[in-house]
Prior knowledge:
It is a single chain. The protein has nine helices and twelve strands. The mean pLDDT is 92. The protein has a six-stranded mixed β-sheet with strand order 6-9-10-3-11-12, sandwiched between helices. The chain has a four-stranded antiparallel β-sheet with strand order 2-1-4-5, with helices on one face. Strands 7-8 form a two-stranded antiparallel sheet. Strand 11 (215-220) and strand 12 form a beta hairpin. The chain is α/β, with parallel strands linked by helices. The protein has helices spanning 40-48, 72-78, 95-109, 117-130, 148-162, 178-191, 205-210, 230-239, 242-251, and strands spanning 2-11, 14-24, 29-33, 54-62, 65-66, 80-83, 90-94, 141-142, 166-170, 197-201, 215-220, 223-228. The chain has one domain: P-loop containing nucleotide triphosphate hydrolases (Rossmann fold), CATH 3.40.50.300. This is Fe-S cluster assembly ATPase SufC. It holds the Pfam family ABC_tran. Residues 2-248 form the ABC transporter domain. GO terms for molecular function: ATP binding; ATP hydrolysis activity. It comes from Psychroflexus maritimus.
Amino acid sequence: MLQVKNLHASVEGEAILRGINLEIKPGEVHAIMGPNGSGKSTLASVIAGNEDYEVTEGDIIFEKANISELSADERAHKGIFLSFQYPVEIPGVSVTNFIKTSINQIRKARGQEDMPANEMLKKIREKAALLEMDRKFLSRSLNEGFSGGEKKRNEIFQMAMLEPKLAVLDETDSGLDIDALRVVSNGVNKLKSDENATLVITHYQRLLDYIVPDVVHVLIDGRIVKTGDKDLAKVLEEKGYDWIKEELAQQA
């Protein structure tokens, strides 16, 4: 579903990603872990098409098509979704109106008619119930005055409504208490299928107790330096990253 080939990216002339290679198949959950400043959020942003980052080398292949030159909205139309680490507030635009507009823009790009109002309402109710969201929440301005947990829950609600093929979750667990983490993770797990894939970016192994990854990658200094199964995350929780850095130093 996703192939990242020798990806280099920079921001304001500073190199951040230094040759990322990554392959994600349909039905898989991949986790990326690494210390602060290693390039995790940059990778998420570059996959989603954030124009603040300049891709200086390499390609991003999505469903066998090179999307490296596509804009963020064109990538969204193809089925790529990014859950932000720090979701922005949009005063005056309700959660419901935002999601209706988003869905219909994607349908329009795919040559489809707007979703019928009754079908939209039914879907909104179903997905809100899945994420244990109060109906009043849906009429509030997007993220305005939301707690950290409400913002993250709203991100997963958007994901549930948009049904992307590839969901990139950028530190969705940050700022969540255990109850909110459980609800958000439960939503992600229920949306998982053989037709979609998820890339989870996190600092903490605790999220991976709920959203169990098929593959765990360690990102340090803009490169994936180690890949393993879910047990690698547990080792990182116990030992940190210094042992990997020492291995890299010895190899150099």
